[in-house]
Amino acid sequence: MKNIYPMIKSSVGVFKEKNTKRIHFVFYSTSCHKVFEIENECILKSILLMDGTKPLLDIFLKINLNFQQFTYKELEECTELLLKEGIIENTNDPIREQFTTEELERYSRQVDLWSDYCDLSSPWELQKNIKESTVAIIGIGGIGSWMATSLVMAGIGNIKLVDYDRVERHNITRQLLYTTEDIGREKIKVMEMKLRSINPNVNIFPAHMEIDEGTDLSHIVESCDLVINCADNPDINTTAQWVSKVCLKYKVPHIVGGGYIGHLGLIGPTIIPGRTKCWDCYQINYKKRRKEGKLLTNLFPDRKRHTGATASISSIVANFQVWDAIRLLGRIGDPNIINKTGEIDLNNLSIRWNNLSEDDLCEVCSEYYI
């Protein structure tokens, strides 16, 4: 405790209840409200001195000067409780020293959020986990462009971008960072330049390539902590099958980046090899649901399907999955979109979840899945 510089978290409000000895701590980020009855006036005086500029011993000596009955052990016990309850943090944090002054300023508000949602000894440890991660995004269009931007803003350390397309005018209404001046340019080059301008601390590795069933993705996947598939040519289900096969080989977590059909947004899933059901399990579930519907014959099999799209739905779908990525990479907790997919309806903002059943297991997953 000697080296701790305690500070009430900036996201925590401290209030004294009139005519009582109760102190209220309000967590603004989570709407949590904790109340403690403080009988010892010295404890309250100590809390008021916890501004992050003084070590715990200095706080004790200042109080003890006028209240000699107050012991250092009492202050230590109080501090331990406040740390455990997530009310204070230690500004003398060695992990902070691994970030530059610019990074400390850049990520400060974000780390305030981490401090409320994680039980790590230092919220900067979570940011460090994100900084040391490598993510590949395959397809940087309607979903991928938003996910790449959000992850770079969050401080992902290394990001691989895979795409072969060029910016078209109709992309600009829903795909982030592309502008009218970029029409005709390779998406990969435009995205690389603009992401670097957002966060120069991130290492960006662009790959101008189109994937198909025979594409060797090993050099993209094997060094990653997470792969996000947003490629939709010929369709998201087919590319998910290709990408998931390689990810399972290297045991790399991966997210199927969903998509949208008009006002409906498709969310997830997040797959962790060896811990969750895999893409083949989802195909078993999908085929079951297809059998329940009517059998229809497509009279225009060669016509490419186009559905309406807007930035509203693509950004919502993308950032649902970015939060899952951050939880996984930062080790803030288990991802939310595992063993299920979601469908968000933009008309009423409802989400319908399709949970895999115990019977939706491929041969591989049935060997390890509980």
Automatic annotation (TrEMBL):
InterPro entries per UniProt: ThiF/MoeB/HesA, ThiF_NAD_FAD-bd, Ubiquitin-activating_enz
UniProt-listed Gene3D superfamilies: NAD(P)-binding Rossmann-like Domain (3.40.50.720)
Top-level taxon of origin: Bacteria
Residues passing through the membrane, by range: 135-156
UniProt KW keywords: Membrane, Nucleotidyltransferase, Transferase, Transmembrane, Transmembrane helix
Residue intervals of the THIF-type NAD/FAD binding fold domain: 107-356
Pfam family, one: ThiF
MF GO annotations: nucleotidyltransferase activity; thiosulfate-cyanide sulfurtransferase activity; ubiquitin-like modifier activating enzyme activity
GO cellular component term, pick one: cytoplasm
Protein name as catalogued: ThiF family adenylyltransferase
Organism field: Virgibacillus salarius
